[in-house]
Amino acid sequence: MLTAAACVAIGEFCNRRVIGWLPDDPPRPGRKLHARPIPLAGVLLVPTLLAWCIADQAWLALTAIVIATTIGFEDDRRKERAGPLDDGGLDWRVKAIGLAAAAALVAGAASDPLTEPWFFAAAFCLTFVLTNAINFLDNTDGVATGLAAS
Fold first, then answer.
1. What is the reported pLDDT for 150?
2. How far apart are CA 106 and CA 128, in angstroms?
3. How many CB atoms lie within 10 A of CB 1?
4. CB 3.0 to 4.6 Å from 103: which of 11, 44, 97, 128, for a disulfide?
5. 59 with 53: CB under 8 angstroms?
6. Model pTM score
7. CA 150, CA 145: separation in Å to the nearest integer?
């Protein structure tokens, strides 16, 4: 937990004071009612997750995290540059394929698809649905971060 807190603190400091590398979530009509742009800082927890995966030699989980993070970060960067009427972001098919690949890697780490196809399918579906649910919550001004912290 201290490592995660340090990653967030250092990343946020660098974003505000040094380079400004995190994409911002600009205010928009509808669900984005905050007063000023908010940095999308979920990527700051990734070094902690990667360190855990490397220490545990969880290579499939590590690859899934890298895929999901890359898709999310690029999607957020494109949305930041979008116009007021343009949603921006990656095409939904690119996101679906990438997140399906990440879910398959996580399910493959939990079971063997050849010997346990039903368990693999259940793990795949659960991972895919939970990933999208967390992303949906995160689009509500950082609710996912609050849930992860509790």
1. 58
2. 10
3. 7
4. 128
5. yes
6. 0.72
7. 9
